[in-house]
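Hi R.,

Here's the chain you asked about this morning:
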Amino acid sequence: MVNLNLFSQIISKIDKNAFRKLVSDKQTDKHQKGYNSWTHLVSMLFCQFSKSQSVRDISNGLRSATGNLNHLGVDKAPSKSSVSYQNKHRDSTLFRDFYYHLQGHLSHLAGFKQTKFRIKSKILLLDSTTISLCLTLFDWARYKTNKGAVKMHTLLDYDGNLPAYVNITDGKTADNKGTYDIPLLAGSVIVADRYYNDFSLLHVWDSNKVFFVIRHKDNLQFKSIKENPLPETRHHHILKDELIQLTGPQSQKKYPERLRRVAIWDEENQQTIELITNQISWTANTISELYKSRWQIEIFFREIKQLLHIKSFIGTSQNAVMIQIWTALITILLLKFLKELAKYGWQLSNLVAFIRLNLFVKIDLHLWLDKPFNLPLYKPKIVDQGGLFPNWNPNSP
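And here is the predicted structure, written out as tokens:
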């Protein structure tokens, strides 16, 4: 019989020693009184898995698991005031840095690897999403006159569809301005929409030997230098493949090198999509398929907004919002890790719903992941209690 509930077994996948080292480095447990960083992390993960709507829900939910808290490494359930206070004051970069550590650790264990493309370059998808906030409560998150928001500038690793980098800014920060600090991996390819058609930014990427596939704007000024022949066996959606030189005074100054331009026909939306790239050797169809793969980041944004607690917040301070976003990312990382381990073909939405319903059920996690609908059958134990009439024969007349 399993003595640990599902939530405890999921938490056990976390590298606790690495978390303790981060806590020690950042001194986030200094002057704490009972509600340490580990308990804080467990509380916020419980908030995400259970989709708790308030600090009261977190406190009462963990209090209902009394007797199982020691398996979580928690001495006692926190009070709602403790959760609220530490969300406001404990350094949110602790959870950010732990996400990056855990992302590398679990990705290595799960062996996330894309098989669609034969190219050796690491594929990274770039986009942002806006999370609306009430300006009256979140007065630090300026966006519009009567509206607040934060923006998640996200660089998504196509292997596993998990963020390799996230920059959280106020809603007013332009997409291209929020990505100047992204880590650049030489030989990788960044795929993005037209909002990142910033030639100063593209020149920085090119100078660092990073490839890019970007949808260019309709008003792009250029001259064609060479048109690459399209093979007879070409895919019919490829309309043009050419080398170009920018002719706009400002754009040419920012990006003086030649670019490759690929025009494709989008049958689904009945429109022409025009792409620019600094990758010369790949086929035009590979360039086209790379841009189509950008849709995966839209799916990721939809997943975290629909499946996790990230559209409303249990604290109103900037630090509390950051902690809730980073613990949501840690949760989605754990979920995708479990999904990768399972032999059963889980849809992520189903996996989230089933875990939420069985969070404190005591059953083997891996058995449940592999065979969720084939629970073991138990034969009831028959206890002989004797009879009131030991000499009575029910078949006698």
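One quick note: Residues 318-341 form the longest helix (24 residues).

Cheers,
M.
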